[in-house]
Amino acid sequence: MDLSGVHVPLVTPFDGNGVVDTKSIAHITEVMIANGISGIVAAGTTGEAYALNFEERQTVIDTIVKQVHGRVPVLAGVGGMSTKEAIKQAQLALELKCDGLMVAAPAYVLPTPTELANHVTVVLAAAKLPTVLYDYPARTGVPFDQETLDLLADNPLVIGIKEASGDLDRIPMLNQRYAGRIEIVCGADADSPSFFNAGATSWIGGMANALPKAHFGILDPATRSEAHAAVLPLLEHIESGRYIAKTKALMGLLGLPCSATRGPLAELEPAGVETLRTLVAQAGDWVPSLV
C-alpha cells in the first residue's frame, strides 16, 4: 500500500440527537476527496472512535468505504483495550473491505514491550491487512518503543508507524533502524516539517479535516516554509488542548458544520470559535473554504 500524501482521520459528525449522521459522513468524505486527500482513516481518534459502540463503528466505516468506492485507500482504526476486542475491530475492517488498519496500543492497560508486540501480532494475523502502527503514548500510556518495534519490524503486514509521540529524536532512530521495513508517517501538526525534512512522505493528520490545502502545502518542499508559517499559530492553538472540539468547530467555519462532540467532550464555546475565526483570517489563502 502506498502511504504517500496526506491521509485524514475523518471526524464523526453527530446529529441534533447525538446519533451518528451518515449523510454528513458521506458528504465530508466527498469533500475530502474533492480537496485531494490521499486516503482516509475511518474510526480513528479524531473520529471519536473510543465513544462509538460496535454497531456505530460498523456504520461509520461502512459509510466511508461505500462513499470512497475505491478512489483512495481506507484504513480502519483499531484501538481495543483487550486483544479480543481489537481482533473484533480488525476483522470488522476486513469484512467491510477496508484497505488496511491503523493499530494503537491498548489504552490504560500498560502492556510490556513483549506483550504489546504479541498483541499486535495476534490482531494482525486475524485480519491480514497492511497496518500502520499508531504511536501516541500520551493517549495510550505506552509507546511503541525500540524493543517492541524490533519484535514487529519483520512482520510483512507492518508497513508504517504514525509517529505522534512528540519526541522528534525518534525520527532519526526510526529512519536508521527500520529503513525499508517500517515507513515513518508524520503524526504531528506544528512539528510536521521535521518529519518531511527528514525524508518522510506521508502524513496522517486530524487537522487535515479542515486544512487539506495547508497540509499539502507543508508536505511540498517548494511551499513548506510559506504554508507552515501561515498556519502555525492555528496548528499550535488547536494542539494546545480540546483538539477534536476545535477541529470540528474549524470545519464549521470553513463550510462543513459538524461541531457536536460526544461526552465527555464538549462542543467548543462561542469565544473559542471566535479565536479560531481570527486565526483563520491571519492564515490567509492557505485556509480556504472547504466547499
Spatial strand order of the main sheet: 1-2-3-4-5-6-7-8
Roughly how many Å apart are the termini?
29 Å
Q: How much β-strand is present in the residues?
A: 5-15%
The helical percent reads 40-55%
Reported CATH architecture:
Alpha-Beta Barrel
Low-confidence stretches: none
Q: What is the count of β-strands?
A: 8
What does this structure look like?
The chain has about 290 residues and is an alpha/beta fold. The chain has one domain (about 5-220): TIM Barrel (Alpha-Beta Barrel), CATH 3.20.20. The chain has twelve helices and eight strands. It has helices spanning about 20-35, 55-70, 85-95, 115-125, 135-140, 145-150, 170-175, 190-195, 210-220, 225-240, 245-255, 270-285; strands spanning about 5-10, 40, 75-80, 100-105, 130-135, 160-165, 185, 200-205. Strands 1-2-3-4-5-6-7-8 form an eight-stranded parallel beta barrel, surrounded by five helices. Helix 2 (about 55-70) links the parallel strand 2 (about 40) and strand 3 (about 75-80). Helix 1 runs parallel beside helix 2, helix 9 packs across helix 10 (about 225-240) and helix 11 crosses helix 12 (about 270-285). The longest helix has 16 residues, at about 225-240.
Summarize this, please?
With about 290 residues, the chain is of the alpha/beta class.
Helices and strands in order, then pairings?
Layout: E1 5-9, H1 22-34, E2 39-42, H2 54-68, E3 74-78, H3 83-95, E4 100-104, H4 113-127, E5 131-135, H5 137-140, H6 146-152, E6 158-163, H7 170-177, E7 183-186, H8 192-197, E8 202-204, H9 212-219, H10 224-239, H11 243-253, H12 270-283
